[in-house]
Design goal:
Blueprint (H helix, E strand, L loop, with lengths): L1 E7 L4 E9 L4 E7 L4 E5 L4 E5 L3 E5 L1 H16 L9 E7 L5 E4 L8 E3 L3 H11 L7 H13 L8 H4 L21 E4 L2 E4 L5 E2 L2 H12 L3 E2 L1 H8 L4 H11 L3 E2 L6 E3 L1 H5 L3
Parallel strand pairs: 3-7, 4-8, 7-9
Antiparallel strand pairs: 1-2, 2-3, 4-5, 5-6, 10-11, 11-12, 13-15, 14-15
């Protein structure tokens, strides 16, 4: 089972919420966390949500159909075996009401609680084992290896200028800016709370807002520290991967970007 895999099919990138790989079939699962009443209009290929008014969305059934075609195209480059690809749209909110203009939508749109039973039904539907367990695992590893995370320029997307950002270290207790660095720790100017690792969250924000590679000077500017040696000690203690030596050293924050601090 793979989550949020993004693959290049040779022409376009496509991202799948959940991909379940078995020896008999592959299942694409698109999860929607939406409340109210969802009306699937198969005539105009749109999803209409009725919840204090009506709002139209792109059709998730059309989306999984497209992903199915793209995944099949990509898999042809790996194997000549014809592994069936199924798809489902799963509504995660059990209180959501599902309606449709078609009597066949219930076969492709289900609530989360139905998923195990739907998978069991597919196991019964497909009798032939196209892949042995080791081959299925190998396919899953290859898909994970080909995963290309989407790198968004957050500032550009939301029209934010770098000078508009609040720099410095945020207090982990009262969430105020900025903390002052003294005696190997951060001291909040607002509530007086102390922390030795408050800068880690700030550096993760740097990686998400700008880039994952940075220099000592980049950190000083972002955290509001004047001392080169102070930053050197902080980064050395964090044991971050780096390339280059002395003033030319460039550190990587890729590990922080993936963490959940």
């Amino acid at each position: 089972m793979l989550h949020h895999v993004r693959i290049f099919d040779g022409t376009h990138y496509f991202q799948i919420d959940t991909l379940i790989i078995t020896g008999k079939f592959i299942l694409i699962v698109e999860t929607k966390n939406m409340s109210g009443t969802l009306y699937f209009d198969t005539e105009f290929n749109q999803l209409i949500r009725k919840n204090n008014g009506e709002v139209a969305f792109s059709d998730p059934l059309l989306q999984v159909k497209r992903h199915r075609a793209q995944l099949r195209k990509w898999m042809l480059t790996l194997t000549s075996k014809h592994l069936p690809i199924e798809s489902l749209v799963v509504i995660s909110n059990p209180r959501t009401i599902i309606q449709s203009s078609s009597t066949t939508v219930h076969q492709k749109v289900i609530h989360m609680g139905q998923l195990p039973f739907q998978i069991a039904a597919l196991q019964e539907k497909y009798k032939h084992e196209f892949l042995e367990r080791e081959q299925a695992l190998k396919l899953a590893k290859e898909i994970a290896r080909k995963h290309c995370p989407l790198e968004l320029d957050i500032l550009k997307k939301y029209g934010i200028q770098p000078k508009e950002l609040i720099r410095g270290v945020k207090c982990p207790t009262c969430r105020c800016f900025p903390c002052t660095r003294a005696y190997g720790k951060w001291i909040c100017r607002n509530c007086g709370a102390e922390s030795k690792e408050a800068h880690i969250a700030a550096l993760r924000e740097y990686a998400l807002l700008f880039r994952t590679e940075f220099t000592n000077g980049d950190v000083r500017k972002f955290l509001g520290i004047d001392s080169t040696s102070t930053v050197n000690k902080m980064l050395t203690k964090m044991n971050l991967p780096f390339k280059g030596e002395k003033r030319w050293r460039v550190y990587s924050l890729e590990c922080l970007k993936k963490s959940k601090l």
